[in-house]
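lol ok so funny story. i was supposed to be doing the assay writeup but got distracted and ended up predicting the structure for this chain instead. priorities right. anyway since i did it might as well share w the group, maybe its usefull for someone
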Amino acid sequence: MVALSYKRALAIIGFIALTIFFAVMLYLLFFRQPTTPITNEITGGPAGRLPPIGTGRPGTGPTGGPGGLPIGEEIEKEKPSKEANGGLTEITPIISTLTDAPTTDGQTVLYYQPTDGLFYRITPEGQVNKLSEQVFYNVSQVTWSPNRSAAVLEYPDGSNIVYNFQTKSQVTLPKHWEEFSFSPDGNQLAFKSMGIDRDSRWLAVSNASGGDNEAIEPLGDNAKTVTVTWSPNRQIVALQREVTGTDKQEIFFIGLQGENFRSMTVPGLGLRSQWTPDGRSLLYSVSSPANDYKPMLWIAGASGENIGANRHSLGLNTWADKCAFTDAANVICAVPQELPAGAGLTPGIAATIPDNLYSVNLNTGEKKLLAIPSTNITAENVMVTSDKKWIFLKEALTGNLYKVALP
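and the output, tada:
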């Protein structure tokens, strides 16, 4: 009885051991995952280096980071071109401080610096010189003469002076004169003489020192509809606009001798304009329901019997005062990268939208992208040197000056 119990116990133990053996073998054969040795070498390149850019693909395992790139790597960014060639283009600050009223004499940029009240000249290479030692604090408006030798300076209290940077002399003008424009030769001024009584408000001209005054047209209660702007061919001294519908205006051309020039109808509101260098045409922008009240650039004849002739849209949503002429037939414009509806009537909503640069041939209407600035800027002034080598821009938010090289 004892021997039988002993044998039975051994048999049971042997069965259990055999069962465990077969269970282990089944696990090793069918269920265990293969392992690889742990190593510090990253595959795909020499030891100690990252795999080459572009070896990662979306969904390929632990090496794939966001966008499918290997973790810790970046896409190589497009390098901006040194010159404006239609793509991303290098834009370089030449003055990193607040400037005002920048203009070009064809080679350099002249500007007013409100922080110290001085006028300066800067070359494309960045060399800065004072135009004068005379300090002018709190100037609110600067109107340059065509050859940049003089300027009318207006102050918040209504005071006005003409300062000549060549002779270092100045002349005081009456306080009730405003909105000045120099004649093409710089020897005369056109302006609004705004007397207290409506009958004493006139469009007038004088010599560059404020003498020899001559009234041209009565303004009455219409002064706000008149823009003083002397044409380069001397025919026109001002434009008057009259709204004639919900989406159009009639523009009247005012000459020195009371000439009866024909008027011109423009398809929109919010007129801004510039004369072409020869004075024969007017570059202007208006906004209408047809383009969601975004500013649209137009060109039209504006001299003698040619007024209003060949009017056509240039197909760019920007303002005329964001453009600069390289000659009578070509212009370079800062064009917002996008514009919300209504920007033509309320420009402030576009104050932070960056600009690209376009060139436009006014004869053919051909336009092309010149540059996408490497730094986002919203241009307030666009200037081109006479040798067509540089574009200068004032950034609207900071007042800094930038330059872009032309090919």
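The first helix runs from residue 2 to 30. The helical segments are 2-30.
back to the writeup now i swear
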